[in-house]
Each structure stands twice: as C-alpha cells, then as structure tokens.
Amino acid sequence: MRELLMVRYGEIYLKGQNRPLFMKLLMKRIREAVAQRDSKVWLSDGRMYVAGFTDMQETIARVTKVFGIHSVCPAVEMDKADFEAVCSQASRMMKDLNGSFKVTARRSDKNYFLDSPQINSRMGEYILNHNPNLTVDVKNPQHTMNVEIREFAYLYVEVIPGAGGMPVGSNGKAALLLSGGIDSPVAGYMIAKRGVELCAVHFYSFPYTGERSKEKVLQLARTLAISSCGMRVHIVPFTKIQMQIHEKCSPEYTTLIMRRFMMRLADRVAQQEGAQALITGESIGQVASQTMDALCCTDVVVSRPVFRPLIGFDKIDIIDYAVKIDTYETSCLPYEDCCTVFTPKHPITHPKLDKTQIAESVLDIEALIEEAMQGIEIIEL
Ligand code: ATP
Ligand code: MG
After folding, report:
1. From 174's CA, which of 14, 38, 76, 303 has a CA 20 to 30 Å away?
2. Quick check: helix, strand or coil at residue 237?
3. What mean pLDDT comes out for the span 237-256?
4. Tens digit of each residue's pLDDT (9 = 90 or more) over 73-85
C-alpha cells in the first residue's frame, strides 16, 4: 500500500490527435514542479500519478499550481484482491468525517469479482457499520468515497482543484510589461495560464525608483515564475528617457510619450527573446493613458499584438484575482514605480496620433531606444 496523488488534467481532453503532445508537456511540467529526488510521475490508463514524495501537503501545493491540471486527489493505492482490506482502508480514511456519504466505484478491470454496484453497496455497508458519525445519502452526499479498480485499487475522498488552463510552453511566448503594481502580475498570470511562456520587461528609473522597488518587482516575478516555469526579467534603464521627455515635451503629452517608449522597448525585447506578443495590465479608462484614444496611440508603435487580459475588469475584480494568485501583498508594498515619477497634473485623455507624433518629434527616439537597450540587465529566475 502506498500514498500517491492522482492528477486529472483539464482542457487537454479536447485536444484530439495532439493530445499525446500536450500530455507529455504536462508531465514534464509536473516533474519540474515536484523536483524531488525520490518523486515519480507517471501515466497509466490515461491518468497521471505522483508518488514517492516525503511531504504530501508540500507536493499538493506545488502540483496544484501547474497550469493544465484540473484537480488533484490524495489517494491510497493497494492490492485489490482482498476486498475486506480495501473496505477497511476506506473506512479508516473516513473516520474523521461527519454527515452523509456515498461510495462511487469505477471498474476498468472488468474481470474483477465484484461489479460497481456490488462494490458500492458492500463498501458502503462496511463504512456505515464502522463509522457511527456517518449516514448514507446516495443523491446528495457531503462526502464521496471514490474507489477505482484498475491494476490496483485506488481510494480517495478529497478532490483539490488545480490551477486549470494549459501547460506552459504549449502556446508560444509573450513579453510581459511588469510594473510593481497590482494589475500587470495578474495580466501575466492569466496569459501564462493559457500555456504561454513569459519573459518580463521592467522599466527602472534609478535613482527616482530605488533598489527596493526593483526587489519588489523581482519578488512579483518570482511568484509568477512558480506557475510560469521560470522567467527571464529584463530591467531596462529608463531614467534618461523620462528626463528627456520631462524636459523637452509638452507636459500634457509626457505620460503618453513615455508609454509609447515603453511599448517600443518591450517590442525590441520581445524580438530578442523570440516572443510573439506583448502583455500589459491595462484596463479601459483606469487612468488617462488607458482611454481608448490613448491605447490606440500606444499600439501603433509596435509590430506585435498587445494582449490586455484585464481590459474589461474593474479594479476591485483585479484585486480579488491578485489575492488569489498571491501577488496582492507584494504589489501593495509602498515603493514607487517610474510611472509615478514626473506625472503631469493634466495628462491628455483624448490624444490625436498626429499631435502626439509632433509632441515627441523633438526627441531622438532611435538613439534613446538604442542606449536603453544597451543598458539592459537580465535576471534569470
Ligand atoms: P499595474 O497596472 O501593474 O497595477 P500601475 O497601475 O502602476 O501598475 P499603470 O500606470 O496602470 O501601472 O500602467 C499600465 C501598464 O503598463 C501596467 O499594467 C504594466 O503592464 C505597464 N507598466 C507600467 N509601469 C511599468 C514599468 N515600470 N515597467 C514595466 N511595465 C510597466
Ligand atoms: Mg494599472
């Protein structure tokens, strides 16, 4: 007898002929997440299993974060020949539970000496006789003892939801514009969840934003990297660009021009990284640079699609999401972002593209971009 985790995958089910490729990738992701010398991950009868771990709770916490997993069940695997022993084990697994229960048997071994209804009734009776706190309710039970008769017998009660989505690496790569705020980590998580590998780009305005603000961004990136299977973070020096915009451009356009620089630089980093799209945490109307007109003025400077998964989200819903994915607390640390340095009093909310281009034409855009690209620091997580 041994304890193991039964892993159920989600949308991969829909993948027809490509399913084996997705399964192989998901197994690889689970192996990386578990990363313990003695753990074993394998596939049998279309099911994934993890065993050989030393800490069950730690392993569950790691596996449930892997994108592509629908749920994880802590289970016991045992010899199926002695049905009395199987019932006794099932009964022990339910001894701390109260309320109603039923037994649900599945039998892929059609030669087993009991069929599913017989397993249900015999095991149900055994559990009932040995657990005075439990009653039977086959229609709407509070607990279900699941029994699967395969090569071995498998028993489980608990079904722990997984992260859902698709395994990372199944859907290309994108560059996330990662600030220290609440929105961008959530945006990155949502896209990574669809199987997209991430790299991150952070604009850093030293000394206006200091070491601690950089450390905060790296902390957010580390949290994301757990689900996104690692990440390269590109720290782009942004002070000179911001100073020049501040000194030379009309104040109402400075934020918009700064955003256009961010997009151009992220596009270049994406090019170097082989990323096919950009991701931002923008949401319509959240601030002046996120009106429809402003978004149109920033999109035109890049050659890749810009994914904005939060575009229709209210801030309060984004906060709920950030809490769920464990980034909220870090995002709330008080260190400044470069966006909050040099903010004009009255940023333009309905910019026209031609006027924006004229406003930034006083700058040597190419030279500034080139210099910033040369100064990038890359941190591998
Ligand atoms: P967040 O949107 O992440 O909460 P924020 O509200 O401070 O941070 P906004 O001003 O809303 O940032 O910026 C919109 C988007 O631009 C961010 O979601 C992020 O994708 C990108 N961005 C802003 N500042 C930076 C930065 N310093 N480095 C990288 N990307 C940034
Ligand atoms: Mg924001």
Report:
1. 14
2. strand
3. 96
4. 999 999 999 999 9
Q: Whose CA is nearest to atom 20 of ligand 1?
A: 280
58: how many CB neighbours lie within 10 A of its CB?
12
Q: What is the mean pLDDT of the chain?
A: 94
**Which ligand ends up closest to the CA of 290?**
1
* Overall fold of domain 2-161: VC0802-like (3.30.2130)
Q: How far is CA 349 from the centre of its chain?
A: 33
Give the C-alpha separation, 296 to 281, whole Å: 15
Ligand 2 ion: nearby residues, β-carbon < 5 Å:
183
Model confidence pLDDT, tens digit, residues 221-231: 999 999 999 99
pLDDT digits (tens, 9 = 90+) for 6-29: 999 987 767 777 888 899 999 999
Residue linked to tokens 């030393």: 54
Topology annotation, domain 173-380: Rossmann fold (3.40.50)
Sheet with 306-307, side-by-side order of all strands: 306-307, 277-279, 173-177, 197-204, 232-237, 377-380
Where are the domains positioned within the chain? 2-161, 173-380
**Ligand 2 centroid vs 102 CA: distance in angstroms?**
48
At residue 212 the predicted structure's pLDDT band, cuts being 50, 70 and 90, is very high
Burial label for 37, CB within 10 Å (0-12, 13-18, 19+), is exposed
How far is 254 from 347, CA to CA, in rounded Å? Answer: 7
